[in-house]
């Protein structure tokens, strides 16, 4: 029997970074005296806190515009199912995390069908990079947006959407990395989605072969997710270099402390590596047609947020048509060999991180805003 004082919260996160954020915010919320229950969409991090997990992030494998189009029927059906559940259960609060191309249509449908309670978005869509019109659309359906970067608020406040800067989760990463020459690992981060792994694995194979030819004595460390672990194991089963593959968060943190370099799929992972002050090379590749379409609308010159903030290539990155075998080999070799370049990268990262980090814990700030609606 449900306690009449219990507040029911629906949370939707379709990506791993959103699942991580959601789980940590739930932990903060559970420290209060409120009686709370949680249901919704998430991954392995939020699942233990859900009384019901309606969909798993494993069911969201698209990455580019054309890939999403091919899955559109599935997502429309998911949105219809979720909106019906939300209206039937009449949750006291809805929280959506990141994934604007799924969460906005979901929230729009829920509002259209008569949901009257409050709705919060955590993580702003990148309106400063492309599709600026989304800020106005978000203002029509959300009651508040919690942003990770301070400069984002202005885009939403322009349309009177309450915007609160909470800061980025890298706040919680304890940077114990230093210039210790004894570090023996190189981290390979091929992405959190199956599509990313399948697209980028050829370049990780090349990186493996380059390490052999450079005779570095480095071991490879691949932090991943439970649903991708066997897939990556299969991809790497013929590698000759000792390779550690793990999805255990404690192990991941331990191995990062002994990591000297990183080859990273662009995204949240690259920012986390930057906080650890590990020199890195970023790679990413859209579907060719997605790249052609996006090229006409994107207003930034880089993929990595630190590069975007500075409008300068602080962290080397190769994306889309620039990600060729020749370019990749050159920059990967430079990552392994050029100590001066790596020191410069880390020095600049330290400077830029001061612009994006908060003095207060982001998840605690988020929980305080959420509680104000309950």
Short account of what is shown:
By secondary structure, the chain is α/β, with parallel strands linked by helices. It has helices at 16-29, 65-70, 72-89, 100-112, 134-141, 153-157, 194-214, 226-235, 249-256, 268-275, 288-295, 305-310, 325-337, 339-356, 362-371; strands spanning 7-13, 36-42, 50-56, 93-97, 118-122, 144-147, 162-165, 185-189, 219-223, 243-246, 259-265, 280-284, 317-319.
Describe this structure in words.
The protein is α/β, with parallel strands linked by helices and 374 residues long. The chain has 2 domains: 7-167 and 358-371, Glycogen Phosphorylase B (Rossmann fold, 3-Layer(aba) Sandwich), CATH 3.40.50; 185-356, Rossmann fold, CATH 3.40.50. 44% of the residues lie in helices and 18% in strands. It has 15 helices and 13 strands. It has helices at 16-29, 65-70, 72-89, 100-112, 134-141, 153-157, 194-214, 226-235, 249-256, 268-275, 288-295, 305-310, 325-337, 339-356, 362-371, and strands at residues 7-13, 36-42, 50-56, 93-97, 118-122, 144-147, 162-165, 185-189, 219-223, 243-246, 259-265, 280-284, 317-319. Strands 3-2-1-4-5-6-7 form a 7-stranded parallel β-sheet, sandwiched between helices. Strands 10-9-8-11-12-13 form a 6-stranded parallel β-sheet, with helices on both faces. β11, α10 and β12 (280-284) form a beta-alpha-beta unit. α1 crosses α15, α3 (72-89) packs across α4 (100-112) and α7 packs across α13 (325-337). The chain starts with 6 loop residues before the first strand and ends with a helix. The model has no long low-confidence stretch (mean pLDDT 91).
């Amino acid at each position: 029997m449900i306690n009449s004082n219990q507040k029911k919260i629906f949370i939707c996160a379709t990506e791993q970074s959103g699942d991580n954020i959601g789980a940590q915010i739930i932990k903060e919320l559970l420290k209060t005296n409120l009686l709370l229950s949680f249901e919704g969409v998430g991954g392995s991090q939020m699942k233990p806190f859900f009384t019901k997990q309606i969909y798993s992030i494993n069911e969201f494998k698209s990455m580019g515009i054309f890939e999403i189009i091919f899955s559109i029927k599935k997502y429309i059906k998911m949105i219809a199912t979720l909106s019906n559940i939300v209206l039937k259960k009449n949750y006291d609060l809805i929280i959506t995390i990141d994934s604007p191309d799924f969460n906005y249509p979901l929230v729009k449908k829920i509002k259209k069908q008569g949901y009257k309670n409050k709705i919060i978005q955590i993580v702003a869509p990148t309106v400063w990079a492309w599709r600026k019109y989304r800020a106005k659309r978000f203002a029509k359906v959300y009651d508040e947006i919690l942003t990770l970067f301070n400069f984002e608020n202005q885009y939403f406040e322009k349309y009177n959407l309450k915007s609160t800067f909470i800061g980025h989760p890298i706040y919680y990463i304890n940077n114990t990395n230093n210039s210790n020459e004894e570090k023996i690992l190189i981290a390979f981060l091929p992405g959190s989605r199956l599509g990313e792994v399948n697209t980028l694995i050829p370049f990780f194979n090349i990186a493996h072969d380059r390490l052999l030819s450079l005779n570095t004595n480095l071991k490879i460390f691949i932090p991943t997710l439970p649903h991708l672990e066997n897939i990556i194991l299969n991809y790497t089963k013929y590698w000759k270099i000792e390779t550690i593959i793990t999805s255990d968060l404690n192990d991941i943190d331990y191995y990062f402390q002994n990591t000297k370099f990183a080859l990273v799929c662009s995204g949240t992972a690259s920012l986390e590596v930057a906080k650890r002050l590990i020199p890195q090379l970023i790679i990413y590749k859209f579907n060719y047609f997605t790249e052609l379409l996006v090229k006409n609308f994107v207003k930034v010159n880089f993929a990595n947020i630190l590069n975007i903030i500075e409008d300068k290539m602080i962290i080397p990155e190769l994306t889309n048509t620039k990600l060729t075998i020749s370019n990749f080999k050159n920059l990967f070799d430079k990552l392994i060999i050029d100590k001066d370049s790596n020191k410069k990268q880390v020095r600049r990262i330290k400077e830029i991180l001061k612009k994006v980090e908060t003095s207060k814990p982001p998840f605690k700030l988020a929980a305080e805003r959420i509680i104000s609606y309950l």
